[in-house]
Specification:
The protein is an alpha+beta fold and 365 residues long. Among the domains are: 57 residues, 5' to 3' exonuclease, C-terminal subdomain (DNA polymerase, domain 1); 99 residues, Dna Ligase, domain 1. A 5-stranded mixed β-sheet has the order 5-6-1-7-8. The protein has a 4-stranded antiparallel β-sheet with strand order 9-12-10-11, covered by helices on one side. Strand 10 and strand 11 form a beta hairpin. The radius of gyration is 21 Å and the shape is globular. It starts with 8 loop residues before the first strand and ends in a 21-residue tail after the last strand. The C terminus is likely disordered. Bound molecules: thymidine-5'-triphosphate (TTP) and magnesium ion (MG). Thymidine-5'-triphosphate binds next to strand 1, helix 1, strand 3 and helix 12. Magnesium ion binds next to strand 1.
């Protein structure tokens, strides 16, 4: 496989998205450390303002921990309608430049601007214009990455956050990837990163020492992709019809768990993350599947399908607990728990021929 250097791909990602919208709409919050979601006693933080990040507050952090790190933190309730409105606005701006837009969530998207509606020659120029248009129209900042493929464009947008623009040219790609730390590889979750570090793999250059077969054997399906990605080969098109068939969160446990009493608290944490992910994607499913892997590597998956979209967290919780209760005698101890939502709202009107090129998330972070 050889890389296709002819394309111009832009990845746009809003800065501290929910928190910035909250600060924009409430002047009392400007310049202050805030966390959206969570709360001192329960729930997880969806995101934190840059002022709070200085103290180490991060997405998916429990509220009490955020408070511990940053005692002055202000917890703010999420307002998804406001985020959706901004999301719509930025997509309108994107469509002034191209119709090849692949949204990944409310706040980020890939754009193929190889041929763009304004006949702008350089991807960087398109990205600059989009950044200023977004600022103008929404009073919010975003960051942009520009390269010849999706993988590099996505990593690039993260390099100079907030309000930053990074271009990775084909000439720069090789050295950039060789020095890139594995934890910064888009798609490498914590579990994989730790496993790699235990194997002495810290950078792209280290990954390059392994054959494709080795990587597949050690890291499963995604391992095969690492082989190409680390060589800057990612010819996946920007797919405007991309649609999820399912959304999953799973966790490999540090120690095996036995019995409902041990499993429930972990399941509740997974439900928190799972629910945040569904909200972020703004896409809910009619089917919830519980996946368990027993300590002897048997995989058990059980589903419940409703005749409505399960949008309510309590309903998700009840469904997951029911599935667990119904199957508690099928295993002795377990090493992995996962939840999947499928039969999603947003696959209905999409092309049925669509095939996922490959999923980035290994759902283990
Ligand atoms: P991100 O783009 O991952 O984060 P961000 O925009 O807050 O910050 P950054 O400047 O680093 O891009 O996610 C976009 C929004 O999605 C975020 O504002 C809140 C929501 N979100 C969750 O609800 N849960 C999560 O675990 C993450 C990562 C994001
Ligand atoms: Mg963002």
């Amino acid at each position: 496989m050889i890389p296709d250097y002819s394309r111009k791909i832009v990845h746009i990602d809003m800065d501290a998205f929910y928190a910035s919208v909250e600060q924009r709409d409430n002047p009392d919050l400007k310049g202050k450390p805030i966390a959206v979601g969570g709360g001192e006693n329960r729930g997880v933080t969806t995101t934190a303002s840059y002022e709070a990040r200085k103290f180490g507050v991060r997405s998916a952090m429990p509220g009490w921990k955020a408070k511990q790190l940053c005692p002055n933190i202000i917890f703010v309730k999420p307002r998804f309608d406001a985020y959706k409105r901004v999301s719509q606005k930025i997509r309108e701006i994107f469509s002034e430049y191209t119709d090849l837009i692949e949204p990944l969530s409310l706040d980020e998207a890939f754009l193929d601007v190889t041929c763009n509606k304004k006949d702008i020659q350089y991807g960087m120029e398109v990205a600059q214009q989009i950044m200023s248009r977004v600022k103008e129209e929404t009073e919010l900042t975003c960051s942009a990455g520009v390269s010849y493929c999706k993988f590099l464009a996505k990593i690039a947008s993260d390099v100079k956050k907030p309000n930053g623009l990074t271009v990775i040219t084909p000439q720069r790609a090789k050295s950039f990837l060789e020095t890139l730390e594995v934890k910064d590889f888009f798609g490498v979750g914590k579990v994989t990163a730790n496993k790699m570090e235990r194997m002495g793999i810290f950078t792209g250059a280290d990954i390059k020492q392994y054959s494709q077969l080795d990587l597949a054997q050690k890291f499963g399906k995604i391992g095969r992709h690492f082989y190409y990605l680390v060589r800057g080969i990612d010819n996946r098109p920007v797919n405007p019809n991309r649609v999820r068939k399912s959304l999953a969160v799973e966790r490999t446990l540090e120690t095996n768990l036995e019995g409902i009493d041990q499993i429930l608290p972990v399941l509740f944490r997974i439900i928190d993350t799972f629910y945040e992910r569904l909200l972020k994607a703004d896409n809910f499913g009619r089917t919830i599947t519980l996946k368990l892997k027993s300590s002897d590597f048997q995989i058990i998956t059980r589903s419940i399908t409703k005749d409505f979209f399960i949008r309510n967290k309590e309903e998700i919780r009840t469904t997951a607990i029911t599935l667990l209760e119904q199957n508690k005698d099928t295993f002795k101890s377990i090493r992995l728990i996962g939840l999947t939502a499928s039969n999603l709202e947003k696959e209905l009107d999409e092309l049925s021929s669509y095939q996922l090129s490959f999923e980035w998330e290994e759902n283990n972070d």
